[in-house]
Amino acid sequence: MARKKIALIGSGQIGGTLAHLAGLKELGDVVLFDIAEGIPQGKALDIAESAPVDGFDAAFKGANSYADIAGADVIIVTAGVPRKPGMSRDDLLGINLKVMESVGQGIRENAPDAFVICITNPLDAAVWALQKASGLPANKIVGMAGVLDSARFRHFLADEFKVSVKDVTAFVLGGHGDDMVPLTRYSTVAGVPLPDLVNIGWTTQERLDAIVERTRKGGGEIVNLLKTGSAFYAPAASAIAMAESYLKDQKRVLPAAAYLSGQYGENGLFVGVPVVIGENGVERIIEIALSADEKAAFDKSVQSVKGLIEASKTINPALAG
Ligand code: A3D
């Protein structure tokens, strides 16, 4: 059986980590693409030279031409610029919209059958613009944010409760911004919902509220610490989990920015919801029942996403069509 092909558009901090993880997990052969010359080639060679040590079989190629992504099964997009301290994800919009146009064209012309995972920020608008530019069907393009936001939530909860991260599940809905919606009612330790853990005294409502707030600002916390660039290990691990679910038809249930066509009362935009990812891409969108408070928080987050999309249409009227 031929190996799968994974193309990484953008070979910066996340792109390099994606390539390394894809190799360690033997997901397939990897093409690292970037507009910067030498960086994808250097990272490809460096990772290939680690393969004998770790004992994985995969080929790595650095590229500056879109022709090299032809035939890719999965494409993960990180091209663009990351946040700097003091910059919001939205500040990135103008720069990264242009990048999504060129990436979308590259995908449309060279790998229109791939399953595409977008990571570039501002996530919900970037994936929307990338779909427009690439013309991909809605089930073959998705944004990565929910897996990361949930992982941050799970880490903080496991730390609070002094239990294994493996036994903590968490749910984060909405756009990938500071008004994302961590759902405590649907988040559990081994099946026990967080509100019940407050009731039995494992934590207090105040501490839980603080964890929710820290989750919402999780990306900014890392930006402020790193000072140059944003998080890359956990974002890469999150996108690899989504790629693996597609490549191996695992049908995992993961939160992701998916194209809504009526679900949750929304149409024509990408926003974080629980989805099933399998061999057909986004195979299902799960519509969970939300309480009035949760629905209000979700709607607020959706409003922010809509604001970004309107701003995108103003910056580039061609996207409005
Ligand atoms: P960085 O290390 O700067 O890598 C970006 C790469 O993109 C660089 O190597 C650039 O040369 C390359 N690039 C720029 N323009 C183009 C282009 N037109 N075509 C191809 N390549 C190009 O950034 P990073 O890897 O740390 O982050 C990448 C993106 O992910 C940024 O937009 C971040 O804001 C975003 N990000 C999203 C999340 C989410 O959870 C959604 C988390 C962390 C980072």
TrEMBL record:
Q: Would the keyword Amino-acid biosynthesis be found if you checked this record's keyword annotation?
A: no
UniProt-annotated binding residues for NAD(+): G10, S11, G12, Q13, I14, G15, D34, N96, I119, T120, N121
Which segments cross the bilayer? Answer: none
Enzyme active site: H176
Annotated GO molecular function terms are:
L-malate dehydrogenase (NAD+) activity
Please list the residues that bind substrate: R83, R89, N121, R152
Record keyword Ubl conjugation present: no
The task this protein performs is described as: Catalyzes the reversible oxidation of malate to oxaloacetate.
UniProt xrefs under PANTHER family: L-2-HYDROXYCARBOXYLATE DEHYDROGENASE (NAD(P)(+)) (PTHR43128), L-LACTATE DEHYDROGENASE (PTHR43128:SF16)
Family listed: Belongs to the LDH/MDH superfamily. MDH type 3 family.
What name goes with this protein?
Answer: Malate dehydrogenase
Protein source organism: Pseudochelatococcus lubricantis
